[in-house]
Amino acid sequence: MNPLSHALSRNGNNFDLVRLLAAVAVVYGHAYLLQAPDGSTDWVRNALGFDGLGALGVYVFFLLSGMLVTASFARQRSVPRFAVLRIARLWPALAVGSLVTVFVIGPLFTTLPLRDYFASSMTWANLDNFSTIVLKPVWALPGVFEHNRVPVDVSAQLWTLPLEVRCYLIVLVTGMVGLLYSGRGVALAALLGLATFLLRVNVPHLEVGLREFGEMPSGFSFWPEPFFMLGMLLYGWREQIDFSGLTALALMMVFLAFRDMAAAQPLFYLAFVYGVLWIGTTPLLRRFVPRHDYSYGIYLYGFMVQQCVANLAPHLTHGQAALVAAPFILLCAWLSWRFVERPVLTLCRRRLARREPPLATGIATRDQVVR
């Protein structure tokens, strides 16, 4: 027996390992986007015929986030505490990342004179972290990466951050009205989240309409937000759900048996979600769980470092470029965790510390969040 409720308790899961693997998958997927074509393509996309490894990594982040952020609200039982912890998890590291972008990457790689670079409003717009979090603009610098395969863009991966924040707001609102404390309530909250997903809100004009389902995110065959809602639903029914390696294997075999049929894609997502959660909960992999969570740092700096590699060595193959970038990405992620993320989270938790009720329902006691 491997119940999900047990996995959501302290040190009862491998979610940091899963997040690390998902972050590596995204970096690998970006290599095919950023390096010049060399005749090779993402082997996962070739095998599946729809999503590549990078897209699957993003789905993993949203799935785990749906479970863990919902668990966080249910544990906090406080709107201010929940909001402070979410802000502390996202904003400080993002703010430092924008400073690195403007004052390190820009001056090193811009083709403009530094006076012109720092005189450009485009440079200083990258320090508007609120817009980055809410309105989807990416970091772009004048004269930087102009001749790259993806020109000017320093942080294309940030497009998922506003989606994540909007999912947080769904948790916040449904939690405020008391829906996150029972299985049926969480199911209703997830359905309300899906309803908001069906709508498309044009910010800042607040124009509301139905989502254009023919418009997929670039490189994706599905959308990330439903995986977050699925994560919420899984949290709500955590006591009734457990995971088995044999079942995970059986689901993958079913997908392989029907991979050439119309039902292949939904069958794959079923096997994929179940397999990810089995990896995240099985005691067999507990020894491989990293002591620290570097996934957000990899998310913030991966694309940036890969753009630098693509600019300096465009002749490298996709695999070579990913290997060259990897140690620098990990160094940036370590620095971000060691000097920004962990100190801020530790300070917030100490300030917000209060006596908490006994956790009889398996609610997560680690404030684990996902990008």
Descriptive terms for the model:
371 residues, mainly alpha, two-stranded antiparallel sheet, globular, disordered C terminus
Structure description:
The protein is mainly α and 371 residues long. The chain has one domain (4-243, 282-352). The chain has helices at residues 4-7, 15-34, 43-48, 53-76, 79-109, 114-119, 121-124, 129-134, 160-176, 183-198, 225-236, 245-257, 264-281, 295-312, 318-352, and strands at 199-202, 207-210. It has a two-stranded antiparallel sheet with strand order 1-2. A hairpin with a 4-residue loop joins strand 1 and strand 2. Helix 2 packs antiparallel against helix 4 (53-76), helix 5 runs parallel beside helix 14 (295-312) and helix 10 (183-198) packs antiparallel against helix 11. Residues 357-371 have low confidence and may be disordered.
Describe what is shown at a glance.
The chain has one domain (4-243, 282-352).
SSE topology:
Layout: H1 4-7, H2 15-34, H3 43-48, H4 53-76, H5 79-109, H6 114-119, H7 121-124, H8 129-134, H9 160-176, H10 183-198, E1 199-202, E2 207-210, H11 225-236, H12 245-257, H13 264-281, H14 295-312, H15 318-352
Antiparallel strand pairs: 1-2
Order of helices and strands: HHHHHHHHHHEEHHHHH
How are the strands ordered across the major sheet?
A: 1-2
Number of strands: 2
Kindly state the mean pLDDT as a whole number? 89
Largest sheet: number of strands, sense, barrel closure: 2 strands, antiparallel
Class by SSE composition: mainly alpha
Number of helices: 15
Number of domains: 1
| Rg, nearest Å | 21 Å
**Level of helix content?**
55-70%
- Note poorly predicted spans: 357-371
Q: Kindly, what is the distance between the CA atoms of the first and last residues, rounded to a whole number of angstroms? A: 29 Å
Shape: globular
